[in-house]
Amino acid sequence: MHWLVVGTGAVGSLMAVNLRRVGEHVSLKPRSATPHPIEIIHEAHTLQFNTQQLPINAPTQIFAAVKAYDVATFLEELKQSPLPDDSSIILSYNGMLDNESTIMPERALHWVTTHGAYRHNNEVVHAGVGESWLGWARVEHASSRRPTEVFNVLNNALPLLNWSPAIDQRRWQKLAINCLINPFTVLHNCRNGELLQHDITAQQLQVAEEICWLAEHKGIRLHAETLVESALTVIKNTARNYSSMLVDVQQQRRTEIDFLNGFVARQSLQAGKAAPANELLWHRVQELAN
User: Fold this and answer.
1) In terms of Cα–Cα distance, which of 9, 39, 29, 255 is closest to 119?
2) pLDDT score of 173
3) Has residue 139 got a pLDDT over 90?
4) Does 113 lie in the same domain as 77?
5) How high is the mean pLDDT of the chain?
6) Which of 165, 187, 222 is where one domain is finished?
7) Which pairs with CB-CB distance under 8 Å and at least 24 residues apart come from 221-229?
C-alpha cells in the first residue's frame, strides 16, 4: 500500500515515521514543492522520505495533516487532480470550517486524535500517547462499512485507533479540547502541563458552556463539566507537549484560532447568541500572534 502524507508538521511527521516503521511505502507532500528528500528524526533515528505532488497515477492512501486554513486549498487541488480508484483521503486538522459541508470530498474520512506531538527543527517528538478515531466525513456515509485495510494499517502505525460512525461527535469533542487548551498555552506561554499552575478552570467552564450551546444547536450533545475534565486529562497526558498554536505564535506563523474559538464565536453569533468567552480568547491570541 502506498501512502502520501500531506503536511510535514508534527502530526504528519509522526504518522509518516510510524507508517514507515510498520513497513508501508510513504512519500511526503510538503507545502512547498522540493525535488530533494525530506529528513525526519524520530527517537534518534534519521529517516528520509521522497516527495510527491499531485496528480497521482497509482492507487494511493492520502493522509492529510494540514492546517485548517489550508484545507480548502488542498481539497480544490485534489478536485483538479482526481485520485485513482482504490485510493482514499484521510483528513486531520484542528477546528472546523464554516463551509465544510460544501467542500468535503464524497468518500473522505476524518481522523481525530488525542496524541500529542511537536517538531523541533527536523525532529518529531511524540510527547503524549493518546488514541484516535476514524470515520466518514460526510454524514450520509456515516453508517457505511469501514475501509478495513486502511483502518488496520493506521491502527498498527499509531494505536489505538477506534472506528467511529459518529465522527462528528468526536470532532466536536476535539474542537472543545483544543479550545480549552491551546489558547491558554499561548496566553501563558507554556507547555500543556504547565497550565496546571494557572487558575483557568472557571474560564474554561465558560468557554465549554458556550461550545455546548452551539453544539446542541447543531444537533450534538456535549456536557461542559465533562469537557473541562477531559481537557484536564489531556493536559496531564500531554504535559510535555507544546501546543501547535503556541509553536505557531513563537515562529510567527498564522495560527488556527479562527477555526477554533473564532469558529465558535462566529457560528454562535449567526445562531443568535454571543459567545463572549470564546470571542475574548480569539482576539487575545490574534493580538499576541500579530
Assistant:
1) 9
2) 97
3) no
4) yes
5) 96
6) 165
7) 222/172, 222/173, 222/176, 227/173, 227/176, 227/177, 227/180, 228/180, 228/201, 228/204
Is the model's pLDDT at 32 over the cut of 90?
A: no
239 plus 99 within the same structural domain: no
54, pLDDT greater than 90: yes
Let me know: does 166 contact 112? Beta carbons within 8 Å.
no
Question: Using an 8 Å Cβ cutoff, are 72 and 105 in contact?
Answer: no
- Helical (H) or strand (E) element with 228: helix 224-237
C-alpha torsion angle, residues 202, 206, 207, 213 (rounded to 10): 150
Domain final residue, candidates 129, 147, 165: 165
State which residues form the domain around 22: 2-165
pLDDT digit string, tens, across residues 153-167 = 999 999 999 999 999
Task: Give the pLDDT of residue 219.
Answer: 96
| Cβ density class 13-32: b for 16+ within 10 Å, e for less | bbbbbbbbbeebebbbbbee
Return the pLDDT at 41. Answer: 98
Domain match, 157 and 207 both: no
Domain count, the chain: 2
Active site residues: 174
